[in-house]
Design brief:
- The protein has seven helices and six strands; from the N terminus they run ββαααβαβαβαβα.
- The longest helix is centred in the middle third of the chain and has 17 residues.
- The chain has 215 residues and is α/β, with parallel strands linked by helices.
- Strand 1 and strand 2 form a beta hairpin.
- A six-stranded mixed β-sheet has the order 2-1-3-6-4-5.
- The radius of gyration is 27 Å and the shape is elongated.
- Helices cover 32% and strands 14% of the residues.
- Helix 2 packs across helix 3 and helix 4 crosses helix 5.
Length: 215
């Protein structure tokens, strides 16, 4: 399949070849779910912690006599049924991260790129950089493919780690940037606009068109 390359002035410059193995796959919803869920789990800090009755600070004496009051027996006020007592089966610090197969990860990225291309949410723009590192210059460059008056969540895929573009993009709440070789399924899937630099589209073809065994 072919994609149109848009200039910074909003004109169509040329077409670029987009591999069907990357941008033309059938949509696999299951593998997208696995990849997004995996990224969310890996991002969890896992520091939630509660105290059980053995860790709560307090006295060990009985709150009242065991016999003669007609009330239920209680050993101490650190029991989980008392306010301020221990928590039963509460969370403890843990690692939520886990790994999914590399083939599944690759397939999820290709499937999401294919989904955005089929929905018409993927645009290819000519290569550019922001030498000044200023946000207004970056927005001016993106104005040909993004409606700045009504912006939506947008992902910009770069050919490399361009520090000046990253610096300029930090002040834009609806814009995130990804390098072609470090994509994130969560950001791509929930983006309402995916903008790919022309050179980055070629890199995506090279990286994802083959099988995992070929890489």
């Amino acid at each position: 399949m072919e994609g149109k390359v848009i200039s910074l002035d909003g004109k169509e410059l040329r077409t670029v070849e987009l591999s069907d193995a990357v941008f033309g796959l059938p949509i696999n919803e299951d593998v997208i779910w696995y990849a997004v869920t995996n990224e969310l789990a890996n991002a969890r800090v896992g520091t939630a912690s509660t105290k059980d009755r053995g860790e709560v600070h307090g006295t060990n004496r009985r709150p009242y006599a065991q016999k003669g009051t007609g009330r239920a027996r209680h050993g101490d006020t650190k029991s989980n049924i008392y306010v301020g007592g221990g928590i039963s089966f509460g969370p403890k610090p843990r690692d939520y991260s886990y790994a999914i197969p590399k083939k599944a990860k690759r397939l999820s990225m290709k499937t999401i790129l294919s989904l955005k291309a089929q929905e018409g949410l993927l645009s290819i723009i000519e290569d550019f950089t922001v030498e000044s590192g200023k946000t207004r210059d970056l927005l001016k460059a993106l104005s040909s493919v993004v409606d700045l008056k009504n912006p939506v969540r947008t992902v910009l895929i770069l050919k490399d780690d361009d520090p000046m573009i990253k610096r300029a993009a930090k002040n834009v709440p609806w814009l995130s940037y990804l390098s072609y070789n470090r994509l994130r399924a969560h950001d791509l899937f929930y983006a309402r606009k995916v903008v790919v630099l022309e050179s980055a589209s070629r890199k995506l073809n090279e990286m994802y068109a083959g099988t995992a065994e070929e890489r």
